[in-house]
Amino acid sequence: MLRIVFALLFFALPATAEVVVAGLSQNRVSITANFDGSEILIFGAVKRDAPAPGSGPLEVIITVAGPSESVKVRRKAKRFGIWVNNDWVDVDSAPSFYAISTTKPLDQILNETEDLRYKVSIPRAIRSVGAPESVQDPAVFSEALIRIRTKKDLYQMNPNTVQLEEDTLFRTSIALPANLTEGDYTARIFLTRNGQVVDVNESAIDVRKVGLERFLFNLAHERPLIYAIMSLTIAILAGWAASAVFRYILA
Amino acid sequence: MQIYLPIAEVSVNAFLLLGLGGIVGILSGMFGVGGGFLMTPLLFFIGIPPAVAVATEANQIVASSFSGVLAHLRRKTVDLRMGTVLLIGGLVGAAIGIQIFAALREIGQVDLLVQLSYVVFLGMIGSLMFVESLNAIRRSKSPGASPKRKKHNWIHALPFKMKFRTSGLYISVIPPVLVGMAVGVLAAIMGVGGGFIMVPAMIYLLGMPTKVVVGTSLFQIIFVTGFTTIMHATTNFTVDMALAVLLLIGGVIGAQIGTRIGVRMKAEQLRILLALMVLAVSSKLALELLLQPSELFSLGESSH
C-alpha cells in the first residue's frame, strides 16, 4: 500500500522537478503619513532533485499585482464644438498595481498559451468582457487604461531586471510608487524553459495604512458625522488661531 | 516633503499644498471670494480626485473665510441681517445642489457640468464686472459727470420688505433669498464658496454698498460651505482632513495678508483685478473644452 502511495507521489511530480524557493524583503508595506513609495526586494533559489535539464535556458518572471477592481474607461469626443465624455467601456477587472520583472523580454521567455493560462503580461492581467454594443473598438479602451496607469508608474514592465546566477539564485527589486492604494497584493514567481512554465510560487504582500492614516480613514468611513464636525472644528480653530497670531505679530 | 493623503490616497508635496493655500488665501482676503473657483481646478491639476477636491475645498473655504470674517466683524463691515437672509437661501440651495450632483454622477456627466458651469458663470460675471469697473474708473476721472443715482427698479416693487440698517437698504427679502439659493447650488456642484457670484449680485442686484459686501458674503459662505462639508462627508466620504489642514494653514495666513491689501486698495481697482482673474480662469477652462485634449480617455470608478 505504502509503495503505491510513494509511486503515485513520484509520478505526480513533473519529470524535471525544479521548484522555486522564494523570499521577500517584506510581507507588509505600511502606508504612513509620509509614505513616499517603497521598494520590495524579491529573491530566491531554484531547488532541484536532479541536475538541470539541458533543454533551453532557465528564465525567471516576477510579477507583483495589487487588488483587482472594475474600472470605467471613458472616451471624449467632439460634440457641438466641445470635447465631452462620449462612450465608455467597463473593464471588469484590472489590478490597481501591476509590475513585471523578467530576465529577458517577456515575449522571448513565455509563450502565448502559458501567458493566457497564468495571465502574466499586462494585457492578460486585465479582464474586459462587457463592452456596450455601440462601441466598435473596445480594445482601444483597454490600451488606454494600460497607457494611463503606465504613465503613473502603476503598471510597470521591467525586462532584464531579474538577476539570475548559475541558473539557481535570482533577485530583483520592485519599486512601489507613492500613489499606492491599500489591499492584498500578490507576488508571483514563474520559472520558464522554452516558453513553458516550469514552476510557480505565490506569496502575499499586505499593503495597509497605519497610524494617523488608518485612524482618519476609519473615522471618515465609520463615523462620518463626527469626522465632518472634527474637520470643521479643526478648520475653524486654525482659522481663528492664525488670525489671532497674525494680529499679535502686527500689534 | 511628501505626504500621503488618507482619503485622496495620493502622495503630494506638503509645501506645494501650503503654497497653493497661501496664494489662494491672499486672493480670498483681498476680494472676499472663497477662492474655491481657483483652488478646485488647481487641485484637479495636481492629481487630487475631483470628488475629494470638491468636498475638501468646501472644508478649506470654511477656514479661510473664518479668519476673513473675523477681520470684517472687527471693522463692522458685516451686515448680519442680510447675511442671515442670504444664508437661509444658501442652505436650501446647497441641499438641492447635492441632489443634482448625485443625479448627474449617475449619467457620468458631472465633469462636463462642473466645467461648463465654470466657463459660463465665470465668463459672464467676469466680463460684466470688467466693463462696469472700467466705466466707474472713467467716470471718476472726468469730474464733470455726476455719479448715477440709485434707480427704483422691479426689486423695490416686491413684497416682504425688510430694513437692513448696516447696508442702508429697505428691500424685499425675496431677491437676497434667491441669490443665496443660487450660490448654495453652485457651492455644492462646483466646490466653491460662491463669492464670485454673490459679490457682484450684492453690488449690482441688491445695491449694497461695496464696503459691507465682502464681509457679508464671507459670513454666508462659512455656513453654506460648512453645511456642504458635512453633506459630502456623510454621503460620499470624500473630505480629506489632512489635505484640508495643509491648505488652510497656508490659506488663513494668506487671507490675513489679503484682507490688509484689500483695505489699502480702491474699490474700483479691486473689482477690475477680480474681473481679470475671473476671466483668466474661465478662458483657461473654455480652452480645455474647445481644444483637443492630449489624452482622450479617462478612468473612473465603475458603477457595479
> How are helices and strands ordered from N to C of chain A?
HEEEEEEEHHHHEEEEEHH
Shape of chain A: extended
Q: Biggest interface, and residues per chain? A: A-B, 62 and 56 residues
**Helix segment tally of chain B:** 10
Instruction: Give the % helix of chain A.
Output: 25-40%
Can you put this structure into words, describing what you see?
The complex is a heterodimer of chains A (251) and B (304). The mean pLDDT of chain A is 84. In chain A, strands 2-12-11-4-7-8 form a 6-stranded mixed β-sheet. A 4-stranded antiparallel β-sheet of chain A has the order 1-3-10-9, with no helix packed on it. Chain A is of the alpha+beta class and 251 residues long. In chain A, strand 5 (68-79) and strand 6 (82-95) form a beta hairpin. Chain A has 2 domains: 17-209, Immunoglobulin-like (Sandwich); 210-251. Chain A has helices spanning 2-12, 106-109, 112-118, 122-125, 138-151, 211-222, 224-250, and strands spanning 18-24, 28-31, 38-48, 58-65, 68-79, 82-95, 98-102, 155-158, 163-165, 169-176, 183-193, 196-209. Chain B has 10 helices and 5 strands; from the N terminus they run ββαααααββαααααβ. A two-stranded antiparallel ribbon of chain B has the order 1-2. Chain B has a two-stranded antiparallel ribbon with strand order 3-4. The longest helix of chain B is centred in the middle third of the chain and has 32 residues, at 110-141. Chain B is mainly alpha-helical and 304 residues long. In chain B, helix 4 crosses helix 6. Mean pLDDT of chain B is 81; it is low at 145-149. Chain B has helices at 14-31, 36-45, 50-74, 80-107, 110-141, 174-190, 195-205, 210-235, 241-264, 267-290; strands at 2-4, 11-13, 161-164, 169-172, 297-301. Chains A and B meet through strand 5, strand 6, helix 5, helix 6 and helix 7 of A and strand 1, helix 3, helix 8, helix 9 and helix 10 of B.
Quick structural summary:
The complex is a heterodimer of chains A (251) and B (304). Chain A is α+β, with helices and mostly antiparallel strands.
